[in-house]
Design brief:
By secondary structure, the protein is mostly beta strands. It is built from one helix and 15 strands, in the order ββββββββββββββαβ. The protein folds into two domains: 198 residues, Nucleic acid-binding proteins (OB fold (Dihydrolipoamide Acetyltransferase, E2P)), CATH 2.40.50.140; 46 residues, Ribosomal protein L2, domain 3, CATH 4.10.950.10. The longest helix is centred in the last third of the chain and has 6 residues. Part of the 50S ribosomal subunit. Forms a bridge to the 30S subunit in the 70S ribosome.
Length: 274
């Protein structure tokens, strides 16, 4: 993993920091695992804009990712580590012994030629997926299920990882990337290792156009709006805008929006830090 700082030969490259892509082994995706990806531009079925600041962007194909890792006990060889335009993490192409090919989220340190396997009674090595009941305590994990068979929903972005802290009965205690400590059923699957591309947070776009390539249009700051458009709008001159809050009046910066009646509150051992 590495990043490169470009020489300032143009204004847009002066502050630009790009990924070195050392881990990437090919730029040609597996065609059988591609799907079309349609853009809405933030418009609904009537063509009216319902989400602001969305539109444009480079054309993409979706890579079909195996989040469930349900080919238990069948070894697979890592053929390539690839870039995925739809997510911050890199992805790995697996070639199973029965001939099937699948993409998975690549873990940090996953190498081409390495063999990975999922299921019970497998070794706790990087890239292997196994139930929380089989993973040694203290292990760094990622791509974690919340319900058995659901598929990975947590710790999937670049550099993310969780840690298995304890086990008691049918629940395991896991410390999540947000800092929250939570109880998860021990028969949920998790993958050993942290997610790849941990340098993603160091990247700098360098110019506004790069954000447009990602499909994000310029965002109007609430303090420059009129009172009719936003609670923080209005005022004479450069008014500060009052307490930070959303367009609907929900306070930002520390206001807790989780319901006190949420039935899953009982599974949270310790809330994430403010």
């Amino acid at each position: 993993m590495s990043v490169r700082k470009l020489k300032p030969i143009t204004p847009g490259q002066r502050f630009r920091v790009v990924n070195g892509y050392d881990a990437i082994t090919t730029d040609k995706p597996e065609k059988s695992l591609l799907a079309p990806k349609k853009r809405s531009g933030g418009r609904n079925s009537q063509g009216k804009m319902t989400m602001r600041y969305i539109g444009g962007g480079h054309k993409k194909k979706y890579r079909i990712i195996d989040f469930k890792r349900n080919k238990a006990g069948i070894p697979a060889e890592v053929k390539t580590i690839e870039y995925d335009p739809n997510r911050t993490a890199f992805i790995a192409l697996l070639n199973y012994q029965d001939g099937e090919k699948r993409y998975i989220i690549a873990q940090n340190g996953l190498q081409v030629g390495q063999t990975v396997v999922s299921g019970e009674n497998v070794a706790p090595e990087i890239g292997n997926a196994m139930p929380l009941s089989q993973i040694p305590l203290g292990t760094i994990i990622s791509c974690l299920e919340l319900r058995p068979g659901q598929g990975a929903v947590m710790a999937r972005s670049a550099g993310a990882f969780a840690q298995l802290m304890a086990r008691d009965g049918k629940f395991a205690t896991v410390k999540l990337p947000s800092g929250e400590t939570r109880l998860i059923l021990v028969n949920c699957l998790a993958t050993i290792g942290a997610v790849s591309n941990s340098d993603h947070q160091l990247l700098v776009g360098g110019k506004a156009g790069r954000t447009r390539w990602l499909g994000r249009r310029p965002r109007t700051r609430p303090v420059v709006m009129n009172p009719v458009d936003h609670p923080m709008g209005g005022g004479e001159g450069r008014a500060s805008g009052g307490h930070p809050r959303s367009r609907n009046g929900v306070p930002a910066k520390g206001y807790r929006t989780r319901s006190k009646k949420n039935p899953t509150n009982k599974y949270i051992v310790e809330r994430r830090k403010k």
